Amino acid sequence: MILADLVSIILRLAELAFAAIVAGLNGDYLHSVTGTSSWHLGRFIYTEVVAGLAILLAIIWLFPFSGSFIHWPVDFVISVAWFVAFGLLVDWLDDSCGDVFDWDGINFNGTASCAQWKAVIAFSFLSAICWLVSAILGIYWVRRHTAPAAGGYHRRRWYRSRV
């Protein structure tokens, strides 16, 4: 299962990178609107908390141990949290910068607020997909390495060969 370990490491690195990008861009916005009511910034604070939690968990689970695959329920919960953040940000953008995934006409001169928000939305979606794939990989790994409870199957001992 070297391939599963390699895919898991690549996914964790992508999760870490995407969460760091979202945390940085979203944190920049939160810093620029200091003094605003936290009630109006709820979706951004939620996104920042999800990004921070994703960074922490991606760093912890980056190490390639087979035990990291058993955390698939948490991977699924984080994926759902990212999808919620994505939905909240898309709802907030509300076509004020054009369609959400329309990247035509975005310029990166001094004030690139539309480009910044579209990047946050895109990386939130990518992070949600990566966490979901990690959960699916974890389910696959756990199903493959555990025996059914009542089916007459038993787990192969580590010292027995297949031949």
UniProtKB/TrEMBL annotation:
Membrane topology term: Multi-pass membrane protein
Indicate the segments forming the MARVEL domain, all copies. Answer: 8-137
An example GO CC term for this entry is: membrane
> What keyword terms does UniProt attach to this protein?
Membrane, Transmembrane, Transmembrane helix
* Primary subcellular site in the record, as a coarse category: membrane
Mark the transmembrane ranges: 43-63, 70-90, 119-142
Which top-level group of life is the source organism from?
Eukaryota
Keyword Transmembrane helix attributed = yes
Q: Provide the protein's localization.
A: Membrane
Q: Which InterPro entries match?
A: Marvel
What is the name of the protein in this document? Membrane-associating domain-containing protein
